[in-house]
Write a sequence for this structure.
């Protein structure tokens, strides 16, 4: 009986070896490989032998074997050409139906059922605007893949060798930025739709911080970070405190000194002119001395002291209340205000913890209290991602000026998951640090992104006004599976993949660099991005973008090690050493590219869970279900020890810490703790301290957070709620709710009709 092959349509046709030979010949001709007729015949026979045991092979199976045989027998260039040929023809076959299928899924599927509707945690894919955003996003991706990207790069993305992040914004903008609020607020700014005056109170400082994040989010595709949040907000505290001091001074003059309002106003102006118009918290004694040095007709020293004491007392009460309200408003705004046509809340991050001024300390304390309170119904706020900057001499040890705030941050994180903790003393962060200069303090953006060193201009190695331009991730498990234990082949393929990624990043940078200042009315026109204030509206932004970073990321180191050695880095010393060698090799490659180009090529520990799921779905089809590699729904994030692998927290930190020094574009290590961490704060603190001791750059502790919907209790809830005694499905008596409302007046409780 004549041998058959199954076409993609499912129909059966005669198996024709000449089609295999012709395909190999076309691929070799495309790249100029010197292959003889004997080579063509030999390789064709090897492919036929490889599928001989399959009764009716499919076209895809035969083509897979062609790739495998070409690589095995040393014709790598021909193999690449053949792979590209396959991808191009796949694209042509799918072009008519792909986009319509995507739109159909977007229109008729719920976000819970459809991955593409929940790629971003802060986008509600079920809303009208969320769906509309995805319509545009998927159409843009289709255009980029089919008409913009070089064919081999497009094929690598489609096939799952690499993943180009935020491809829908490929022609439009950059990833993320660290916004210097102090610079932005000085003199006021424009969002592109109206001009805003310089803020004059802590409430306005808080509100405009949210506006700045929202405005920048509308011009970039990644997250927005405030690296000096406490320093910036401290200025608002000073302004509010000073205004309230003079308000109280006038009130005292009217009530105690029997001044008319006009005379009280004149007194305030005399004091402001002579003693100064700005009063600082805990600097009131210095201000009193200046005040007493004034000669004010009708007021003796005792009266001036009483006047000052009353004003300070009233201003202190006011500023504590106003700062707390401002921090509550910030958290509520960043979890409710929308950007991008109302489709998502801004992906926001704030860094704080090192401002030791009384005003900065007040901001931090009140922010942590507001975070502990939660949102309106007691929910744990997702945004902003909060990062407490840990530094010896500032907040790490007893006696440090902000040690109490470090302790408060630990208690808050133990209940609310945030803040996370970054470590300025990690050697790769400390090398840039200059005491008293927050611009040299490392700041992280969202999940992990970090921008600090600056190869393009080493004198501008700083945080403010810089960010990532774009990043592309490599599928490490696939390289491990293809290598089959051959490290030489693995490294050759890895270098080829990084070469391709560098070409792609430079291709994208060329497009980004052609944009003009007017394309970014906030980011560039308001001087958010470093040196952009030197440009005119019609200038291109290419030169200032060079301060940003171009990053290559990676997914699934654990699974790659499993494919190469049989174990991951949590299981064996051999795998641990190899893991560091692989990531060290990638870092060295990118450092060399920085030297070669003068640009900031950096290595990122990729955070994208959705991407790790995409890669494994593709590889499962290609390689089958392989235990420890493709047998789960996701590849492990970046360099992490797999979450399913039971390992002591300190051991996990030890294993992952060295990777932080290698991944200069960003990183994070998570530790999972069981039980109610609020009940064991010393253990929580011990983990944070161990992270610092091991050289972690950025760390977070995850733990269970339950919430009783009736009484609002947040924490670990077993069978019975610790606050109200309610079991799942039970109600709570009205009398109990009344008792709880008296005991916990700040906790939102249901009314249940008992007003």
């Amino acid at each position: 009986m004549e041998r058959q092959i199954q076409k993609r349509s499912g129909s059966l046709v005669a198996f024709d070896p000449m089609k295999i030979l012709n395909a190999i010949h076309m691929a070799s001709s495309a790249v100029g490989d010197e292959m003889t007729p004997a080579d063509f015949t030999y390789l064709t026979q090897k492919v036929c032998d490889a599928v001989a045991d399959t009764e009716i092979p499919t076209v895809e199976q035969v083509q897979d074997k062609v790739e495998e045989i070409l690589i095995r027998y040393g014709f790598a260039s021909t193999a690449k050409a053949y792979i590209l040929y396959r991808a191009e023809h796949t694209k042509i076959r799918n072009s008519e139906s792909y986009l319509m299928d995507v739109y159909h899924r977007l229109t008729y599927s719920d976000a819970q059922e459809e991955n593409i509707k929940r790629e971003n945690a802060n986008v509600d894919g079920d809303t009208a605007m969320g769906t509309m955003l995805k319509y545009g996003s998927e159409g843009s991706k289709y255009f980029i893949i089919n008409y913009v990207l070089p064919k081999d790069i497009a094929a690598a993305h489609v096939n799952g060798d690499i993943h180009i992040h935020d491809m829908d914004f490929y022609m439009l903008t950059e990833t993320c930025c660290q916004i210097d609020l102090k610079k932005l607020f000085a003199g006021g700014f424009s969002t592109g739709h109206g001009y805003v005056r310089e803020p004059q109170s802590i409430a306005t400082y808080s509100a405009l911080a949210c506006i700045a994040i929202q405005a920048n989010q509308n011009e970039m595709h990644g997250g927005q970070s405030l690296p000096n949040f406490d320093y910036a907000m401290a200025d608002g505290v000073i302004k509010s405190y000073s205004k309230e001091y003079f308000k109280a001074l006038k009130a005292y003059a009217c009530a105690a000194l029997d001044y008319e309002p006009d005379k009280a106003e004149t007194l305030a102006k005399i004091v402001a002119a002579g003693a100064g118009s700005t009063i600082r918290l805990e600097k009131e004694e210095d201000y009193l001395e200046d005040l007493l040095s004034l000669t004010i007709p009708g007021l003796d020293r005792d009266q001036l002291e009483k006047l000052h004491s009353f004003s300070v007392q009233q201003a202190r009460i006011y500023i504590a209340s106003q700062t707390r309200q401002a921090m509550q408003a910030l958290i509520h705004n960043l979890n409710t205000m929308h950007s991008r046509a109302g489709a998502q809340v801004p992906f926001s991050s704030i860094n704080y913890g090192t401002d030791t001024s009384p005003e900065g300390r007040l901001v931090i304390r009140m922010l942590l209290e507001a975070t502990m309170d939660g949102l309106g119904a007691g929910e744990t706020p997702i945004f902003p991602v909060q990062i407490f900057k840990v530094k010896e001499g500032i907040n790490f040890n007893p006696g440090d000026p902000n040690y109490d705030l470090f302790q408060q941050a630990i208690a808050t994180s133990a209940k609310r998951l945030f803040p996370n903790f970054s470590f300025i003393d990690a050697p790769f962060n400390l090398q840039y640090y200059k005491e008293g200069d927050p611009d040299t303090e490392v700041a992280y953006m969202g999940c992990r992104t970090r921008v600090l060193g600056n190869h393009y201009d080493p004198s501008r190695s700083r945080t403010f006004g810089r960010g990532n331009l774009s990043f592309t991730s490599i599928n490490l498990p696939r390289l491990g599976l293809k290598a089959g234990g051959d490290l030489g082949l693995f490294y050759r393929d890895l270098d080829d993949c990084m070469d391709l990624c560098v070409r792609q990043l430079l291709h994208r940078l060329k497009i980004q660099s052609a944009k003009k200042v007017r394309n970014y009315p906030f980011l560039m026109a308001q001087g958010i991005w470093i040196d952009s204030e030197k440009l005119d509206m019609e200038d291109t932004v290419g030169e200032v973008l060079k301060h940003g970073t171009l990053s290559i990321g990676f997914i699934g180191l654990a699974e790659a090690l499993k494919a190469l050695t049989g174990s991951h880095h949590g299981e064996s010393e051999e795998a641990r050493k190899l893991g560091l060698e692989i990531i060290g090799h990638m870092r060295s490659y990118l450092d060399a590219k920085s030297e070669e180009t003068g640009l900031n090529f950096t290595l990122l520990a990729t955070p994208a869970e959705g991407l790790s799921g995409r890669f494994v779905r593709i590889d499962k089809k290609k390689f089958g279900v392989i235990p420890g590699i493709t047998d789960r729904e996701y590849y492990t994030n970046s360099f992490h020890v797999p979450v399913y692998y039971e390992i002591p927290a300190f051991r996990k930190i030890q294993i992952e810490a060295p990777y932080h020094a290698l991944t200069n574009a960003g990183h994070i290590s998570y530790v999972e703790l069981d039980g109610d961490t609020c009940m064991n704060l010393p253990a929580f603190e011990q983990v944070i301290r161990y992270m610092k001791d091991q050289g972690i750059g950025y760390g977070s502790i995850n733990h269970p957070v339950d919430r009783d919907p009736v009484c609002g209790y947040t924490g670990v809830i077993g069978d019975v709620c610790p606050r109200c005694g309610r079991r799942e499905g039970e109600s709570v008596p009205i009398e109990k709710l009344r008792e709880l409302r008296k005991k916990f007046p700040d906790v939102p409780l249901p009314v249940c009709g008992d007003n």
